[in-house]
Write a structure and sequence with these properties.
Blueprint: E1 4-5, H1 7-10, H2 13-49, H3 63-72, E2 76-83, E3 95-100, E4 106-108, H4 127-135, E5 139-145, E6 153-163, E7 166-176, H5 177-189, E8 195-198, E9 204-207, H6 223-229, E10 233-235, E11 238-242, E12 249-252
Antiparallel strand pairs: 1-10, 2-3, 2-7, 3-4, 5-6, 6-7, 8-9, 8-12, 10-11, 11-12
Helix pairs in contact: 2-5
């Protein structure tokens, strides 16, 4: 069964308003990601202009901006640039990733990416990397237990970084789920019918609906296609309203 579209027949004014407010709540995180994307793109273009491949030490130039954004944006727990495999001349994979601890100190993520020793050496299959690479658009991944960085239930928002028309990696930021829920659950609970938020793969990002818990999957509709059209729709008795400018869908029973 496909998704039926049509704004007038689908979304009520309160639902459209909540979808817009959810978009606004997450837009601040995407602004952080966009700044990292811009700096990463500019850096890689400068290196390309030198007619050489980038190396891992080149990415150290991103650190002042990453540190400043982590110090400024309380909702963001980690941020950085993740290189596409083969981008760097001196390393098969690389995360220029920094995170803010409970004490407010910004520290690097020290990760073993040796494929002979580490289960995390291939990050290309994870949604936060694969969705921007495959769609060329923003993505929201999770929630999931972030064993890689914080061991907390988290969301990762990301955007593709492209240089000279080629995918070079992703700019991304982590948000603790508890912080995201604090911002959006009051909005969802204000609607007269049960509601939850899903990403492009139908993963529930936050929920005020006991039938759809955070982290579970909402099956049936092609949420990625719906986000591509940015038009509300219906599917099997559910109303589906894309959130403003961010890749989440408000699902109302």
């Amino acid at each position: 069964m496909g998704v039926r579209s049509g704004l007038a027949a689908v979304a009520t004014e309160p639902e459209r308003r909540v979808a817009a407010q959810v978009g606004g709540a997450l837009e601040a995180v995407f602004e952080t990601v966009a700044a990292t994307r811009a700096e990463s793109t500019a850096l890689l273009r400068r290196v390309a202009a030198e007619r050489r491949r980038p190396v891992s030490r080149d990415l150290a130039a991103l650190r002042p901006g990453l540190h400043a954004r982590l110090a400024r944006d309380a909702i963001v727990s980690g941020a950085g640039f993740v290189a596409a495999p083969g981008l760097l001349a001196d390393a098969p994979a690389w995360l220029e990733w920094w995170q803010s601890g409970a004490d407010g100190v910004v520290r690097p993520l020290l990760l073993d990416l040796d494929p002979g020793r580490s289960a995390y050496s291939d990050y290309t299959h994870w949604d936060w990397f694969a969705l921007p690479r495959d769609t060329g658009r923003r993505a929201v991944a999770g929630p999931y237990v972030d064993y890689l960085c914080s061991a907390e239930y988290s969301l990762t928002v990301s955007e593709p970084v492209c240089v000279q028309g080629r995918f070079a990696g992703v700019a991304a930021a982590d948000v603790y789920l508890r912080h995201f829920e604090a911002a959006v659950l009051p909005l969802l609970r204000g609607l007269p019918r049960p509601a939850h938020l899903v990403n492009a793969h139908g993963r529930v990002a936050a929920s005020a609906d006991a039938a759809h818990l955070a982290g579970s999957l909402t099956r049936g509709p092609d949420f990625g296609e719906l986000l591509g059209t940015a038009r509300p729709g219906t599917h099997g008795g559910l109303r589906l309203i894309p959130c403003r400018r961010v890749p989440l869908v408000l699902v109302v029973a």
